[in-house]
Write a structure and sequence with these properties.
28% helix, Immunoglobulin-like, endoplasmic reticulum, alpha+beta, transmembrane, 178 residues, disulfide bond, Translocon-associated protein subunit delta, TRAP-delta
Length: 178
């Protein structure tokens, strides 16, 4: 026969479920120190899109490691990938050459909590500037070189035709005595 009072086990499970969110809450990186290396596509002839690669090491004052990070570059969210080296991350971002002209772009980095707040604000068309990133990295993109205005093959062909023309004219003006 079941008693009307809850058992000790039921109370324990219920208490654990109430306290679980406190144990599951994550830490935030305090006082981040970031050492970035940035690569951008230099020319359009070798790639169909402009690519940004941001590799960086992250050190927190509170010695937090293995943080899941997300970047917001040009209004598009991108996950940061952890590399095999401790506290090293990499973000890759690409778009068409026309969408990423020369200029300085800001990569804003968020932890899971900040990223969740950012996505919620984007869904609800709220002001995303009020959500502060953990840190930012400036990406200085000098633009892509689209090649020379005149192709070298064309210049070589024109020079070859001019040399042949002048040589033919010079030969035709020579008179051979009979």
């Amino acid at each position: 026969m079941a008693s009307q009072l809850p058992s000790t086990m039921t109370v324990s499970i219920f208490s654990l479920l109430l306290l679980l969110p406190l144990f599951a809450s994550g830490d935030t990186c305090l006082g981040p120190t970031v050492t970035p290396q940035v690569y951008t596509t230099p020319e359009a002839t070798t790639s169909s899109e402009t690519i940004f690669i941001v590799q960086f090491s992250l050190t927190c004052k509170n010695d937090l490691t293995n943080i899941n990070l997300y970047a917001d570059i040009n209004g598009k969210p991108v996950p940061a990938t952890k590399t095999t080296i401790a506290n090293q991350y990499q973000v890759t971002f690409s778009d068409s050459h026309s969408q990423l002209p020369a200029g300085t772009y800001v990569a804003k980095f968020y932890d899971e909590e900040g990223y969740s707040a950012l996505r919620k604000a984007q869904r609800n068309n709220e002001d995303i500037e009020s959500i502060k990133p953990i840190f930012t990295i400036d990406i200085d993109h000098r633009g892509v070189w689209k090649g020379a205005y005149i192709q070298s093959e064309f210049v070589a062909a024109v020079v070859a035709i001019l040399v042949w023309y002048f040589a033919y004219n010079a030969k035709s003006q020579l008179h051979v005595p009979n």
